[in-house]
Amino acid sequence: MSASHSSSSSTITTITTITGPRPSKRYLEQSEIAALRFENTKFPLLVVLDLNGCLVVRQGPVIELREHVKPFLEYLLEEHYVMFWSSATTASVKRMVDKLLTPEQQTRVVAIWNRSHFNLTPEQYNSKIQLYKKLSGVWESEYIQQQHPFAGLHPWAQWNHHNTILIDDSEEKARHEPYNHICIPELFRTEDPNKPHLPLNPGTTVLSQVAGYLDWLKHSCNVTNSIKKEEFVLNDQYNLNWQEFWAERGRMEFEWDEAEAMEDWPPREE
Question: Are 135 and 176 in contact (CB under 8 A)?
Fold first, then answer.
């Protein structure tokens, strides 16, 4: 626990930190159920995206984008079901989402969650404490469950540990459902002197590799077991070629902003 003192009085405000959750016994048991794969069947996936440090990096009013995040998001909106969940405030989340998506694209997003969706006390909300993204809270949302493409048609048609993926740069935040998590390297500002060297396979980016991994997961009937057996590792065999992806769907390659494309090439993460 930590305490903060008010400068105007001797009152001590106690801020209760949050104990890191552990996976439930049932969750761990479910993760052991062998995942059957159906190469000709695409199962719906709910992809929960972090924002700062994952898709963007903020410094004051400046927001930098991870390389090729625009085609990555369009791929997700085309192939899967997308929601955002950030520990930032409502206003900050809106600024980041507005930077990433057009108004039309935002209408295709399942939900946008912010700091208010962590069930915090007022003191916790206004303090920098470790937060945890419990996907069970997502699954308990009636509104989000209604966004399942087959909601109401079958009793099994619901979002759960079988078909939900959290993409976040923090393993700690995902500790409640570790086998629903794709952990990617934290994004740093271009000019950050502490930015680590991040070598990538030629012709790939972090997000194209993640997209390739998701393309593999979409054929699994139990992603927890698939991730447990073969977690996402950077520079593994997974990669999605944007040109081939759109060509297979009878569309030209996704056109993102030309200026942004020039800024992102060569990739900043190197």
Answer: yes
Predicted TM-score of the model (pTM):
0.87
- Strand 181-183 to 12-15 pairing: unpaired
Query: Can you list the domains of the chain with their CATH numbers?
Result: 42-191 (3.40.50.1000)
Closest CA to 134 of 148, 120, 149, 150: 120
Tens of pLDDT, residue by residue over 100-159, are: 999 999 999 999 999 999 999 999 999 999 999 999 999 999 999 999 999 988 878 999
The CA distances from residue 191 to 76, 196, 198, 202, in Å, are 29, 11, 15, 23
Please report how the helices 69-79 and 90-100 are oriented relative to each other, as an axis angle in degrees rounded to 10. Answer: 90
- Tokens for 157, please give them: 């048609």
Residues 216/52/108/110 CA torsion (nearest 10 deg): 80
